[in-house]
Every structure is written in C-alpha cells, then in structure tokens.
Specification:
Blueprint (H helix, E strand, L loop, with lengths): L4 E5 L4 H12 L3 E8 L17 H14 L3 E5 L1 H17 L6 H20 L4 E3 L4 E5 L5 E5 L16 H5 L1 E2 L7 H10 L21 H8 L8 E4 L5 E5 L22 E6 L4 E5 L5 E12 L9 E6 L7 E9 L2 E11 L6 E6 L2 E8 L2
Parallel strand pairs: 1-2, 1-4, 2-3, 4-7, 8-11
Antiparallel strand pairs: 5-6, 8-9, 10-11, 12-15, 12-17, 13-14, 13-16, 14-15, 16-17
Length: 359
Amino acid sequence: MEKKKVVVGMSGGVDSSVAAYLLKEQGYEVTGVTMRLWQEHDDREETDRECCSFSAAEDARRVADQLGIPFYVLNFGNDFKQNVVDYFIEEYIQGRTPNPCIACNRYVKWESLLKRAMEIGADYIATGHYARVIRRKNGRYAIASSKTARKDQTYALYSLTQEQLAHTLMPVGDYTKEEIRAIAEKIGLQVAEKPDSQEICFIPDHDHAAFIARMAADKNPGRGNFVTSDGTVLGSHKGITHYTVGQRKGLNLAMGYPVFVTEIRPETNEVVIGGPDDVYTNEFTAEAVSYMGIEQIEPGSRFLTKIRYAHKGAMAALYPKGEGQVLFVFDEPQRAITPGQAAVFYEDGCVAGGGIIIK
C-alpha cells in the first residue's frame, strides 16, 4: 500500500518539529516546508523572533535533516502581505482590533500551503497546532480542543473550511506541551527547549502603532480627541491605532477614578472613555459568520462562546440575522467585547463556528 503524503509546515519550533517526527513514525511520507512570509526591507537587523526569519528556517532545515525528510522554503510573501498585513493595518485604521493569526491560518497557512501541497501530489498538510481534527456524527469536520487546555489553539482556527479540514492533520493535539518537549529531547532535537513565540510575528518589537505609522503613513489618522459617550472632550489622544476597547493603561487622563476605552469612532477620530461598568455588555453582532461543526444555527440555540483568545468562554444564545450576521446574547455581561476580534462558539468541545465582532 502506497504511503500517504503529507506536507508539514515547519516554523523551526518544537511543536511543528515533533509533528513531523510523529507523522513519519505513523508511516506517512513526510515533506517539511517553511513558509517565508514576511521580512521588512529596511536597515534593521533581522531577529530570531521575526516571522520566518533565516534562523527559524535553518532550525527547521536541521530538524528535517535529522529526521531524514525532504525540506523546502516556499515564499508566500505576497499572500501574507495582502491577506494578513494589509488587513491588519486597515482594521486598526477603521478602529477595530484584528487577530492576524486567524487571517494567516485561513488564507496562508491553509489556503496557500494546501494549494501548493496538492499541486505536488500530497494528501494532507499538517501543523504543530494544539488542536485536533475530528469527524462529527453529522458528518462534518471540526476542530476539537487539544489534550492540554492551557495550550488550546482552536479559537484561531475557526474559519477553516470543510475542504481544508478534510486534508489536515494535527498530531500535536493529542499531547501536552511537556510531552512534546520530552519527545523532542528524547530524539535529540536541538529545538527541544526553544521558547514559544508570543508576539505578533511580523511586529517583533510589539509596537503595532509604530508599525502601522511606518507602513501606512498616508492613511494613519493621527491625533484626535478623547470624549465621553455624549461627545464631551476630555483631552487629546495619540491616534486611534494606539487603543483598543477595554484599555486602561496609557490613556494619561487624570479623571480621579479608573477610566477605560469603551468605543473607537474612526469617522470622527475619537476615542470614547467610560468608567468600569461601561466596558461590560451582554450582546453584540458578528459578521462573516462561518460554520464548522454545524451546518446552521437554530434561533436561540445556546453555545459556549469565546470573544478573544484568552477568554475562558461564556454561554450565549445565538440569533441569525441574515447576510452572514449573528446576534449573540450572553447570559451574563462580558468585559470588553471588541470589534475586530473573533467570536467563536463551541458545541461538545469542538468549534461549531465563528465570526468577526462588529458592534
């Protein structure tokens, strides 16, 4: 019987490295690929933690050599700029707070890589994500929680299509992070203790506002006013790209009590300020809602819903509104429901669907 072929996206980190090892041990014909996504062409010195840096690709190459698998570096820079970087910049300029990892997963790590993998005759692509691909009783594929909740990455994968999931393997989802590092150490991988990357990969210095100012100076709206919900001016701000809903630090407003960002108004270049209670609400609307583990929503159906990556989730009733929009109504008010972030809803421990919060 001919071996199934799988292309593994290798970042040079321990998770994707062990993913490649596990799949080879399971009998797959494995090819390793590092995706070259982003590199600013200026005089800055490249850091090891920049997205798909030279050193990361070299780490992946060394692992592939050790595992005895073919390895290639593929350039997806144009796809990444259009679908991730340009999207990220435009969302912030429009007063929203995007999650670039979701866009990257959907349009680059899956759509672009899967297309290339299918062209060379592969059956699957694989990653080092802490999640699992399952087939539900209703016949649909879905992303299920990994063995370790602390590293669960299902939230950022909600927008994958049924076609993509049918050709996806996620072997790391059956292990804890500690178990993955132990496997890497056991087989002698140099990346066994390599630290995880935590920041936005194409902004290694964490300063997203400076990045936007540098990349889109002609669009950046610049300074404006802090206002109350009724429009009373409280002071001036540095530019709406510096702020997100729920933010308290860095406002430099002496109000005599704690204040927070409650809304961003790009049309007037205003940042709305309120008190602690003003950042809580129990309902919002999401758009571009896609379904994964279910085909559709029955009005009033209840799901565990996460409104950001680190949110533990809360129960909400969902009501389709047409045109790909859904109204979410939480049982209890939630803090800082932020336009631009994803709302991902779960059923029986797997992703049912998700969309982008708009209001």
